[in-house]
User: What shape does this take?
Amino acid sequence: MATTRRRTKAQEAQSNRPSADELLGYYRDMLLIRRFEEKAGQLYGMGLIGGFCHLYIGQEAVVVGIQAALEQGDTIITSYRDHGHMLAAGMDAKGVMAELTGRRGGYSKGKGGSMHMFSREKNFYGGHGIVGAQVPLGTGLAFAHKYRGDRKVNACYLGDGAVNQGQVYESFNMAALWKLPVIYVIENNRYAMGTSQARASAGELYQRGSAYGIPGRVVDGMNVVSVREAAEEAVAHVRGGNGPMILEMKTYRYRGHSMSDPAKYRSKEEVNKMRSEMDPIDNLKRILVEQGVIDEERLKTIDREVKEIVTEAAEFATQNPEPDPSELWTDVLIEA
Amino acid sequence: MPTEILMPALSPTMTEGKLAKWVKKEGDAVRPGDVIAEIETDKATMEVEAVDEGTIAKILVPEGTEGVAVNTRIALLAGEGEAPDAVGTLGVDEDLPRTAAAQKPKGETETRPTLPVAPVRGQEAGAPDATDEEKWFRDTVKMTVREALRDAMAEEMRRDETVFVMGEEVAEYQGAYKVTQGLLQEFGPRRVVDTPITEHGFAGLGVGAAFHGLRPVVEFMTMNFAMQAIDHIINSAAKTLYMSGGQMGCPIVFRGPNGAAARVGAQHSQEYSSWYAHVPGLKVVAPYSAADAKGLLRAAIRDPNPVVFLENEILYGHSFDVPTDPDFILPLGKAKILRKGKDVTITAFSLMCAHALAAAERLEAEGIDAEVIDLRTIRPLDTATIVASVQKTNRLVSVEEGWPFAGIGSELCAQMMEQAFDHLDAPVIRVTGKDVPLPYAANLEKLALPQPEDIVEAAKKACYRS
Assistant: This one.
């Protein structure tokens, strides 16, 4: 996002409830992700984005709520459904979209694509394409925080599919053993590609760390306020040197696993019900209007601002040139 | 008849050790399981337990004796009804000490080749191999490969606070092969990290730490176990710099013993150089001598890229001259001419350099003057040095312990086709491990691994002398 919202000490002292300004900020941040992803889907349909493209629509409250609890220097890592995480981390929409279109102005100069983007500046460590691989990597970032004694934490996102990879438990073990500052955010959107949680995972996901003594908590991942509240608790626990924590976010993706997925493993009714009743953006908007925090005029202004950012990003991403052919041979090794 | 107590082998590669202490003395009664002596190798101190019941009749090797060969008789045990005094005089002076070789089945007299020391000095000025490397060798000290590797890590850890070592048994146990001996004592548990048996996990954890700018040295107990972790070595460590448009460097070293040790079977004996050398974004190093092990490991730790550092268990205990200069370091990507020659070029790396040098000596006796090149770094490969040699000898024999198909020798064949075709007077010949999983039986294992005579034969064939 253009700005990342961080709470002041005074705000924290006041109460755990987000202020009106903060809520507005979350609304805007979630809307930006929603509109960005819709535009990405559109550009994919036009053939401007290639390969795999995994959209985050429906899950916006998770990254926005987690980000609200982080501070400067905390690191973030996730899998391949990563556009929302990058925007939430404050990465520029133009650079993200240009990477999706494979242009030189993309975050990875067009050499990474949708699943492989990074920003050292924003402490975003990818963007990883192998299911579950980000979990030991994130645990390693947490190891680095502890090694340096910088009191920073890593937010390591994984899906309900990744939780069945062995390396996740190798990581849980080491993180608990060495009390590493990492929060494992399980984004349970109920489907690992086309396989529902019930068909793939025994037991409850938030309990997957219990054998290692890692506390776990289930969170309404469709409600940004619930997410933030849980994230603050987890961050305090982890930053306090108590070892890792697991947050299982109950969430939902509206689109298929990737652009080429017709999503026949679930009913239209199920999707429509989630969209109409549980949508994180609509629900927050309703509350904001009902509580008189925001009026229609202000809403329109925010909508317009977000639309402008996305339009500008799409224009940049379609007009920016492809990488120079010489880039084929760069960045393989760092010259020592 | 008295029972002979023999010097035991503590590991598949142990050939000799020190009889450190006798816990029992002559005349003492022992029962199975009693500790009778302590023996030491360069890796560990171990207790020797009695297997049979009886009385120690005669101690044949006094405590403090070094270099006692495995299977040497170290004591005699009198059984029930035997007078220890009488036993003590039996057969003591005959063929003592009985060595491992003497007890081998007939026809298997040679255990393993002795390792010739490479004649590195006296190279002609201006020769293609003349590097400024020799300046380091004015003052040297004899050191094992194991000690050289340890010193390289310790020196880099002293120099750079971000360097740390992690792996199974690297800290309190002092290293499964004692390569990390003493590091815990000097640097503490923060920087010398014992991991659970969890290769996939700790390799990924190391890569994550490297993304954040630390410089992990990740030890695999053997490279065989790194197959559990190869996704992180390749997908996470090697490719991320490219996929991030140059943002995410990964300064990490993955190291451990590679290839066959001795009689440990197929799953613990694979040679991985061609696997890792296949991957853009990785550097692959496989040193032979202790000096190279030290100089190249220091360079690998300082390198901003992921480096796979392939060691050899058999070489760990072998000694070489190592420069004493505290700044000694060698560049990655440079081969070394171990022996100058004009008739045929033999390339090798790691333990195979010893075989190549032994073969060169035998070839000399037959009037063939072989040039032996230690590749040292597999990727980036120093093809310039190989091509320059082939331009002189017009013949190339490639030696590697690994399998033939898509191996390092295959790559050298292709490189010579592309870069030295007009200079070749004979087809390039590959000497490799046989194309089978490594067998356990001693005779089959020997057949499966390249031997000096295989290299001699290949070189003669390249010279049309067979």
User: Anything to note?
Assistant: The CA atoms of residues 269 and 335 of chain B lie 25 Å apart.
